[in-house]
Amino acid sequence: MLPTDxxxxxxxxxxxxxxxxxxxxxxxxxxxxxxRMTAPAGALVGSVAIADGVFxxxxxxx
Length: 62
Description:
Layout: H1 9-31, H2 35-56
Helix pairs in contact: 1-2
């Protein structure tokens, strides 16, 4: 059964990472931008999300 409560912060961060990388691929495919430009942009957004989840708001027990 799927949970009915709101997604937790780590869930949102994981969604953001995947969305950023998917947006980079879609920008390459749809707009014809070079992947060497879109990949670092997606990776930067994902890296900020990871840094936020690991260093700024680290997971806690409980």
